[in-house]
Design a protein that fits this description.
Distance between the termini: 29 Å
CATH architecture of the largest domain: 3-Layer(aba) Sandwich
Low-confidence stretches: 1-8
CATH topology of the largest domain: Rossmann fold
Helix content: 25-40%
Radius of gyration: 17 Å
Structural class: alpha/beta
Mean pLDDT: 88
Oligomer: single chain
Order of helices and strands: HHEHHEHHEEHEEHE
Length: 222
């Protein structure tokens, strides 16, 4: 898919200057930066080592890769994608993330698992934003996508509306695995990681079911 053809307005999402892409190169400098991050959770970390949180808690994630931090103005892109039906942004997000992943020397996973939405939530929104990103990533990287491997069986409150201390409890028991054949190496695909509670709960379930390595690929990290 030619990403540039998706943007018929010919103007930058932010400054409205003429461009054939979703946003111009000058505006991209404002939010896509090479930040040092914890290799496990993706939090900004000057030392590029495991952060204190990952050292002090049980985590089921091997590595996390993100494109940008969930700060202004980049957060406006995510909001447009999730709540204003800007589906075409998923292609641009996936392209940026795929380009970053192609530079890595580590072995790629055999399967991509988008974070599932509860059927009621998906009915309201009309689509699963993580699945949209995963579809484009799978094409860029030649990796199978399996959106039916896991399902969301608990219609939890949106994590963004809850205090940080209650988010982990909110997603406990939220997911179920629908198969006994679990790949050994999986990448979970999400749009935004906030506290990481949702990702870690899904990773815990997959790890306990027999997955040996779980990577997380997301567009933004709060």
């Amino acid at each position: 898919m030619d990403v540039k053809k998706l943007f018929t307005s010919g103007s930058c999402f932010f400054c409205q200057l003429k461009t054939n892409d979703a946003w111009c190169k000058d505006c991209e400098k404002d939010f896509i930066r090479n930040a040092s991050r914890c290799p496990c959770c993706g939090q900004k970390n000057a030392e590029k080592h495991l952060c204190g949180a990952c050292l002090n808690k049980k985590t089921f994630i091997t590595t996390t890769e993100v494109v940008f931090s969930y700060d202004y103005p980049a957060n406006e892109l995510i909001k447009a994608f999730k709540f204003n039906n800007r589906h075409e942004l998923s292609a641009v997000f996936a392209e940026r993330l795929a380009n970053k992943l192609k530079k890595k020397t580590e072995m790629l996973p055999s399967v991509l698992i988008p974070v599932p939405l509860h059927k009621k939530r998906q009915m309201i929104r009309g689509y699963n934003q993580s699945l949209e990103i995963a579809r484009h990533l799978g094409k860029h990287l030649g990796i199978e996508i399996n959106p039916s491997l896991c399902s969301r069986i608990k219609n939890t409150d949106p994590q963004s509306t809850l205090p940080v201390k209650t988010r982990r409890k909110n997603v406990q028991g939220a997911f179920a695995i629908n198969t006994q054949r679990i790949p050994k190496h999986i990448a979970i695909i999400d749009d935004v990681i906030t506290t990481g509670s949702t990702i870690n709960e899904l990773a815990r379930l997959l790890k306990n079911a027999g997955c040996q390595r779980i990577d997380v690929w997301a567009i933004a990290r709060a």
